[in-house]
Amino acid sequence: MLSRDGRRPLPLSLVNDQEYVGLDDLASTFQLTVQDSLGAVTVSYKGKTIVLTPDQTLASVAGRLISLPAPPVRQGRRWLVPVEFIARALTPIYDTRLELRKPSRLLIVGDLRVPRITARYDSVGPAGRLTIDATPRANSTVSQDGDRITIKFDADALDIPGALLPPQSPPSLVTAIRAADPVSIIVDVVPRFGGLKAAAQPLENTMRLAIELSPPAQTEPATPPANAPPPTPAELPPAFGQPTTPIRTITIDPGHGGEDGGAKGANGSKEKDLTLSVARRVKAVIEARLGIRVLLTREDDRNVALDDRTALANTNKADLFVSIHANASVRKTVSGASIFVAAFDRDAARSAGVAERVPAFGGGLRDIEMVPWDLAQIRHLDKSSEFATLLEQQFHDHVPLAMHPTEQAPLRVLESANMPAVLIELGYLSNPEQEKVLAGDVFQGAFVQALTDAVVRFRESLQNGTSR
Question: Model-level pTM?
């Protein structure tokens, strides 16, 4: 139990695999009055009452019925109630905020800022990315001392699961994450790691801290003996002076999420779950094999507005945007993947390139091409179509395609993308046979491989002289 006065244990008992708390312990902690008479147990607080009946899971809370996961039980002279009693029965009548976080075995008393901290590590070639989420939002500061990174949160305490990060094996740069004090955690990294770059990003009720970790620097060569011949000058690496890769960042957009489940199959498959599963595979494979940074518009089951999905790609200067979805049809026999690029009417295309004359620094005027937010994709349509064609070619013989696999459509999620962008429908969840295929490892592995190959070919085409 966590309050302004600090932490203290609240004893629990296990009865028939159900966790119970003693009413006498709750009474002494929260100034409750407990009476046992006429076959009922009455719990009172400042004129408000809770009435419990032995062997009954229903309880009356200030005149309203609530349900408990198990009935109250008596042990000797003590009455025990399920631990959920605190959240379902006591919280509605108590005048101080109570928050029971049963998975964390934590009871928060009062208006304390206690974010739940979760962490995930992803290898990005020899480098790595540590993602730490604080929910509800809590700002943090990051400091480094040798092989130790300290993250201090603006909070009263932290809700940290027992194993914040499972044991990592090479090539992971992170060896452990542990609590340092009530509001700080320590990240242990491999000796002499290259460095770090931290950035925070608010996501609905979560503050996400992304820490980019560089691999250890190469060890300096030993000093040669005094009589050794002078070393031969090293040749410049072949890539010296050549242009950098045209694709450095890709944004993958798992469609739907949260309350918006999207299409649903007869066997219970949900579009939001399928797209997130595939997007995570895409991220892992492309970052590991191609060394390209991959951003996901959502990394868990949450609702993200369409404009926010594209804004994430634009803000991070992504070089490619891929939105992943699954289709549905009233005809259960329809099947196959489709690839879409954005479509605009002629008036929109004409207005996108209108120049506006504005004052220039130092005097005079200059023409600036003003592009409305929802028309940003127009200038990238040719490259979007080129990537869609490459996708279709790679999907052949690997991913079942629809009758017309590549199409144009006025899709809002693509309209504001200021980079080549496509939307992929993996197939039809409304087709029971294809639903099973889409959820399988074989299909998802083939899709990810085909998409990765298309990215490689698209990158090569950009490197061969055609600019975006």
Answer: 0.49
